[in-house]
Amino acid sequence: MRCFLAALALALCFGCSRGKRPAAEPVPDLRLAVVTDLKGYLEPCGCTSNPLGGIDRLAAQVKQLRESGVPVLLLMAGDVFFDTATIEPARVDQAQRNAKTLAGILSSMQVTAVLPGNRDRAQPPATLEGVVARSSFPWLAMNAPSEVWTAEVGGHRVSVIGVRPGATREEVAASVGAAEARADVTVALIDGTRRDANRVGAIPGVDFVVHGGLDQDDAIPPRQVGRAWALHASRQGQGLVVVDVHLRDAGKRFEDRSDWSRSERAAQLDRQIGELAAKIERWEASGSVDEADLDPQRTRLAALREDRALLDAPASQPKGSSFVARLVPLPKKSPRDAEVEKLMREHDKAVNEANRAAFASLKPPPLGPEDVAYVGSAACSGCHQEAYAWWQAHPHGVAYRTLQERNKEYNLDCVGCHVTGYQQPGGSTVTHNLDGALVNVGCESCHGPGGAHTKNPEVAILRDTPESTCVACHNAEHSDLFDYEAYMKTLVVPGHGLPVKTP
Ligand code: HEC
Ligand code: HEC
Ligand code: HEC
Ligand code: HEC
Predict the structure, then answer these.
(1) Has residue 6 been placed in a domain?
(2) Looking at the predicted structure, is the pLDDT value of residue 22 above 70?
(3) How far is the CA of 202 from the centre of ligand 1 (A)?
(4) Which of 141, 357, 379, 462 is most solvent-facing, going by the fewest CB within 10 Å?
(5) Treating both helix axes as pointing N-terminal to C-terminal, what angle do 125-133 and 92-108 enclose, rounded to 10 degrees?
(6) CA atoms within 13 A on the CB side of 418
(7) What is the per-residue pLDDT across 412-438, written as a single tens digit (0 to 9) for each?
(8) 329 and 287 co-located in one domain
């Protein structure tokens, strides 16, 4: 009965999706779900205007893919667990906890295989052992230049070749050619440059190259490398690339039938056509260019237009094996896996607690003879009431609460920009903040330490904050929309820089 209902639901579901699409795509034989350069990101920091990523969102997508019934291979390449090769001693514990939590979550997502990157490999063996112990999936090519993983998936033989950075062509070719690697689909996982991808893609037998190591935000549509296709899915878990694989003839090159590639190509052609057409028009109008020189340009334009028209023509049936790749970005509104989210929240609490205890006695550098003490924003409130009232209602005045609400106020990746005088002489540390006086982005973040001025207002204090002070916190990674002029407008207001309006 249950089986029947499930089958019915599946049939209905296929029916509805087919109804919406103009031409029904055949069900793929298998799917590759590809993540590159995850770099230990459990989730984005949340500082920017459109945060992308989150391992809970990734998990929800993968679960959904698996529910369709098509076998899914979840593959990761490039740095997976760590984003720096050498971690400063104070951060080692937090980074290890992070990597272990991630390994546990990736195991629950049934990751097929990972090819760890150079930064992962650079960690001390003791660190790696703890993370490997939490991983129920293979870490490829840890002890060899390249390593083959094979499986029978949905009746097809799949071979995944992990390629260690620096492996020679011969070493990789030997793995690809090995008897156990003969397969219907062969996917190489690499951590390297475009040249490395080209090199591995040129090895006979490789169909796809999962290209970790580029460490760039923008995902790249399938790119031809030798007879293979390179796949890249941005970084930090901001998105994943899903490749529907349709198998016909093993050993032949796959045809790319992705809308993603098609629309990229169309945009590129439109650009070229627009530029060339404008040039020709200018030449014609000027009358100074010979017809003999113009003709070849006109022929080129016609050829470009023909290529462009071909892209709009309905696609013919694929002759051999083919694939359709799409990018699945993970914006804030994309669904989250509740179980994974719970693990993340438990992790945040554990890190907070561990750091609070570990750094309980961490004091800021002491004041030198030239240094002025920090006193906190409340010490300014008596004499600058309007400014204080304005600041309390500004995001700067609640920046610490933003972290507390997320159990991240002791997180070493977060606290520095959400408090005042971080690691400055007489300032704050991850645990020490003058009993709460230096939490939030206080007056002294912009005006400098106010100890002397507070005691005696005759002592000057910095009035105008240079842009360099802002961008120490408002950097590209954490404040994508920052614009000094525009942001200053919300600071220079009545009560703070402008006279208070009288009714
Ligand atoms: C005891 C009173 C008092 C306290 C406390 C005090 N100020 Fe002032 N502040 C003054 C006076 C008086 C002036 C000069 C008159 C004016 O321009 O308002 C001044 C001026 C300033 C100016 C303008 C400087 C300029 O060159 O125009 C800034 C900025 C400033 N204070 C910031 C702070 C900050 C930040 C704190 C807390 C760390 C603080 N003040 C604490 C009394 C005080
Ligand atoms: C010590 C770090 C730090 C410094 C220095 C700093 N900011 Fe900020 N700023 C923050 C943080 C953190 C937030 C977000 C607070 C929150 O909402 O939790 C923020 C928020 C803001 C916002 C609100 C943006 C919004 O989305 O509403 C403005 C505007 C702003 N800052 C302008 C400035 C300007 C201009 C300067 C320099 C004059 C500056 N900040 C200096 C950390 C800093
Ligand atoms: C390099 C400095 C920096 C670090 C590190 C940093 N932040 Fe921020 N954060 C900012 C700034 C600046 C803003 C305001 C950005 C803007 O509005 O342009 C901000 C804004 C935010 C906001 C949005 C607040 C709101 O209400 O809109 C959240 C949430 C946040 N940060 C959380 C975090 C967390 C969690 C971490 C650690 C994982 C972190 N931040 C690390 C500088 C930082
Ligand atoms: C994000 C940075 C920032 C923070 C936080 C900040 N200020 Fe300012 N403040 C400025 C800048 C920039 C100016 C100069 C405004 C202008 O150009 O007129 C200024 C101006 C002032 C002035 C001089 C006003 C005038 O009319 O001459 C005072 C006083 C002052 N701030 C006090 C404070 C106090 C008190 C706090 C905390 C309660 C505070 N500020 C928080 C950046 C900041």
Answers:
(1) no
(2) no
(3) 68
(4) 357
(5) 30
(6) 24
(7) 999 999 999 999 999 999 999 999 999
(8) no
* Alpha carbon nearest to ligand 2 atom 37, residue: 470
In a domain, 417, yes or no: yes
* Whether residues 289 and 196 fall in one domain: no
Could you tell me the pTM of the whole model?
A: 0.91
Ligand 3 mean position, distance from CA 412 (Å): 13
Q: Assign residue 466 the CATH number of its domain.
A: 1.10.1130.10
382 with 436, same domain?
yes
State whether 88 and 236 are in the same domain: yes
The pLDDT assigned to 181 comes to 79
Same domain, 135 and 234: yes
Q: Using CA positions, which residue lies closest to atom 38 of ligand 1?
A: 450
Ligand lying nearest the CA atom of residue 480: 3
Residue 305 lies in domain: 266-312
Whose C-alpha lies nearest to ligand 1, atom 2?
Answer: 383
| Total residue count of the chain as it appears in this document | 503
278 & 332 share domain: no
Q: How much distance in Å is there from the Cα of 394 to the middle of ligand 3?
A: 14
Compute, in angstroms, the gap from residue 383 CA to the centroid of ligand 2.
Answer: 23
* Across 16-20, 201-205, 303-307, least confident range: 16-20
Residue of 257, 264, 233 lying closest to 328 (CA atoms) = 233
- Does 194 share its domain with 73? yes
499 Cβ inside 6 Å of ligand 1? no
Which residues, other chains included, contact 91 with Cβ-Cβ below 8 Å and sequence gap of 6+? 412
In this structure, the residues whose C-beta lies within 6 A of any atom of ligand 2 are 395-396, 398-399, 402, 417-418, 441, 445-446, 465, 469-470, 472-474, 487-488, 490-491
Position 348 in a domain:
no
CATH of the domain at 202: 3.60.21.10
Please tell me the residue having the least CA distance from ligand 3 atom 9.
47
Which residue's CA is minimally distant from atom 36 of ligand 3?
A: 414
DSSP 105-138: HHHHTT--EEE--HHHHTS-HHHHHHHHHT-SS-
In the reported structure, the alpha carbon of residue 461 is separated from the centroid of ligand 2 by a whole-number distance in angstroms of 20
- The Cα-based distances of 295 to 289, 449, 466, 486 in angstroms read 10, 71, 57, 50
State which amino acid sits at residue 192: G
Are 252 and 270 within one domain?
no
- Tens digits of per-residue pLDDT, 123-169? 999 999 999 999 999 999 999 999 999 999 989 999 999 999 999 99
Among candidate residues 275, 295, 312, the one where a domain is terminated: 312
